[in-house]
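Per reviewer request, we include the raw input and output of the structure prediction for the construct analysed in the revised manuscript.
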Amino acid sequence: MALKEPMEDEADSLALLRLLQLASSALPVGAYSYSEGIEALVEANRLGDRSALEDWLVQELRVGTIRVEAAILVKAYKACQSNDWEAINHWNRWLSAARETEELRSQSLQMGRSLVRLLHDLQVLPQSTLLHGDGCHFAIAFALAAVHWHIALQPAMLGYLHGWATNLVNAGVKLIPLGQTAGQQLLLKLQPVIQQTVDEALTLPDQALHSCSWGLTLASMKHETQYSRLFRS
């Protein structure tokens, strides 16, 4: 087997480091402040232990909105590679239309806006990088960053879904509550499901861009009027 050239190793290492930065919970986009309905479900005694949280997250990865987001990330990534801004704007508008509650749409746009602003400040994206409409959804901004940082598509998707899972597991650790070890055990159990979601999203056709997320929708709507909250709607 031929060895990689040193410059290839350095490029791969740099791309990995940039992916770790992009998927880090320390990325200042406010992801940690959202529970995506989990707080409302805990309040309603629908999520009371690690097993229940695991079931919820697994179903979201298999048939929920996050599965569709991963597929849109693929389309935005490829469109950015070919500098097709018409397609990027199309999928950005598509995500706005697909959000079933104002709270979930606002979350995605706020996180996307924060990431685009950060990428401008880091000089990853030029200031002229603007999208039409409401703003930029987080999945679209993540795809733009991955392309400009030369992060391969599959690792970028794994990082995106791992970041999503980490944020919601951490929400469960605080709300249920779970111990830190239980949270890490849950993340390990989710890894094969995340890989399966990535494999499916890479080839998901346009006519299959649908989800079964009515539970998330109802929980999101309930959370807005919850009496006491730790997380944002």
